[in-house]
Amino acid sequence: MVANIFSLLGVHHPTYLDAGANHPLNGSNTALFYARGSRGVIVEANPNYMPLWRELRPGDVAVNVGIALERGEMPFHFLDGYSGRNTFSRSYAEAFIGMRPEFAVHEVRSIPTVPINDIVDEYFSGRWPDFLSLDIEGLDIPVLETARFDGSHPIVICVETKDATGVDVVEPYLDLLPQRGYRPIFRTWGNMIAVHESVAPILLCANDQRYPRLG
Which structural domain range is residue 147 located in? Predict the structure, then answer.
């Protein structure tokens, strides 16, 4: 879906910021773009993944920090070695364990954290890339609330909408994204895709009389 959006917009090699990137291939929202020649920055708090990123996607900049509201360090809770269940949020981890008691927090490690605006300033010279993929286990809403979209902005955002218990909770994103200048246009289970309001009319055929207006 995201690749189709960029194709319709004539953006053939979108840049990206993949926050909470996890594995470089399995379930990756940016692996297809990388294979087609795009490059970007991935941010992943789990240090276990860094050798895989260097091996499988050496053209990307892989940053081993967590995205948070402040620069510093935070306890990162490992439920296992590699899955996306690991999180900075203790309450998120506890809620997941409550649903899946076979899991437990087997390690807590202090991991550096950086605000997402600082990542954009440092690695993109202050201008947002074309695509923002956000999957940071319970911190997605506060990070979206504090992202600076005034001077520049991503064209497309994909954000995870699952809570710790696996429920797809979309209402907060339906409220927040339009406030930040984005129109939600598609959902998969557990994710919402939104486009900036400046390109929404192109994608929704709002200026073409051959198609009915939507919304």
Answer: 2-67+115-203
**Beta strand 66-67 pairing with 131-134:** unpaired
158, part of any domain = yes
> pLDDT in tens for each of the 215 residues of the chain?
999 999 999 999 999 999 999 999 999 999 999 999 999 999 999 999 999 999 999 999 999 999 999 999 988 888 776 666 788 778 777 787 887 788 778 788 899 999 999 999 999 999 999 999 999 877 899 999 999 999 999 999 999 997 766 777 889 999 999 999 999 999 888 899 999 999 988 887 645 555 444 44
∠ CA 140-146-147 to the nearest 5 degrees?
85
Provide the CATH number for the domain around residue 175: 3.40.50.150
Region of residue 37 (left: phi > 0; alpha: psi -120 to 50; beta: else): left
